[in-house]
């Protein structure tokens, strides 16, 4: 297929199969053809959406990125996700390589060449003309939708830049279509300048995008709204303020992040939802979600093997860690920790014989533990139980726990009675804006009780806990609150693709990435004995706070200097 646009030189050898690839010699479509009908223009925009990254590791669809953190372990010891934790990671042997997001950037840049700024109205006007369809009954609705299209493309491009920047730091940031020579010479843009651009683009888009597409043509869901534009801005500013990218602790950066989060809160468009948000893109809390078609693959790789009816024949599954389990308090707000001499908890209501009962309600939404009900049965991860595995090759859990988040329990592999389900991956929800405000306000003001930004950090944190059915936290110092809010991030967003990144932006990896632990449960009469076990030792190097730039890219373009520590001479 003949390319109609140039891309970064590193991509020239890649094969792309999308709506930007047309064979002009076939007399079917040219680039101009794609901007002559509403349906084709819509396809061009939808194509850009198609580059939104999944929650999964790119080449192992069953491995959540959480397996590269202290939250979980992946079953297969040779899976690429293990490179995050075993040190077998180089610029040549990459993992979660999202350099391909430049395809999305390229598509957005091409799309945006078809709009120009109208100085009178302040809107971007289309350069193409659809007036030949003015007598079509849908013509006016097409025009209504089209005015939002360039702003959706701008936010998508900004989001792609954010995803690249949080992986690679300073990045190339092409804003126009490049010739091959230009692509081979483009230099990196400093991280802070990338963030400034994202903020500018998202502010512009948010001022023009609607709050919802309900009531418009086709009542589309899954399109970018003003809320998600502000969410991308807020997320970018949070990362810019965090220790990884803000080593001096500049409080002004924290204040910008807090105010951006407060802007979302002040929209009054979203509310916290006490129900589970996984697979529920219609929740009033969800600001943006990726909707996937019906599939059994996620359950195939994460169900207990006895429920897969022989469909899973290889090592797979993202299994929660004991460290994550310990992060969930009792429902009364007390710590619970599995130590060498058993479960430790000062909650008078805690029952050591039933350690998973009466925990933070979010526990049961994220994790399946021994004794919990699932698919009309009881989970048995004790030694000799139905869901126990002595070795990885037995295809069961390696930590003593199973994943619950995003699992569609009604999925069935029973012959002649199979059931498939849709999955909706959360990209951003309202709780994230509130926790961003809580964290950023505490860092900016030096106190969790200072309400000078419109609300105190403590009040914001307790909004999340109240919604979850948990008692309020009562701390008064910046350090104590920092510990509390970091814990809240972990339990509120377990397996929603936060912990992997939070470990990096907080720069806490050396203290949490040394080993991965699980539980060993032995039946003892009518009860059980619980002991902590080491599943694997792990390797960490500070160079892994940022990803290595794929070596082929640095060979093609010497201006894409390699990130610190990743030079081939040091491997």
What do you see in this structure?
The chain has 571 residues and is of the alpha+beta class. Among the domains are: 1-53 and 98-206 and 541-571, Serine Threonine Protein Phosphatase 5, Tetratricopeptide repeat (Alpha Horseshoe); 225-292 and 420-502, Serine Threonine Protein Phosphatase 5, Tetratricopeptide repeat, CATH 1.25.40. It contains 18 helices and 18 strands. The chain has helices at residues 38-49, 83-86, 101-112, 139-146, 149-168, 180-183, 191-206, 226-241, 251-266, 297-302, 322-327, 361-366, 430-445, 457-468, 478-492, 499-505, 509-512, 551-556, and strands spanning 56-57, 60-64, 72-74, 115-117, 124-126, 171-172, 188-189, 286-295, 318-320, 337-339, 342-344, 367-368, 373-374, 377-378, 402-403, 421-429, 515-524, 527-537. β4 and β5 (124-126) form a beta hairpin. The longest helix is centred in the first third of the chain and has 20 residues, at 149-168. The model is unreliable at 1-27 and 57-61 (pLDDT under 50).
Features of this protein?
18 strands, alpha+beta, 571 residues, 13% strand, Serine Threonine Protein Phosphatase 5, Tetratricopeptide repeat, two-stranded antiparallel ribbon
Q: Please bin the fraction of helical residues.
A: 25-40%
User: Span between N and C termini?
Assistant: 38 Å
Shape: globular
What about the largest sheet? 2 strands, antiparallel
Radius of gyration: 25 Å
β-strand number: 18
- Strand residues, percent: 5-15%
CATH class of the domain at 1-53 and 98-206 and 541-571: Mainly Alpha
Mean pLDDT: 91
The low-confidence runs, each spanning 5 or more residues with pLDDT under 50, are 1-27, 57-61
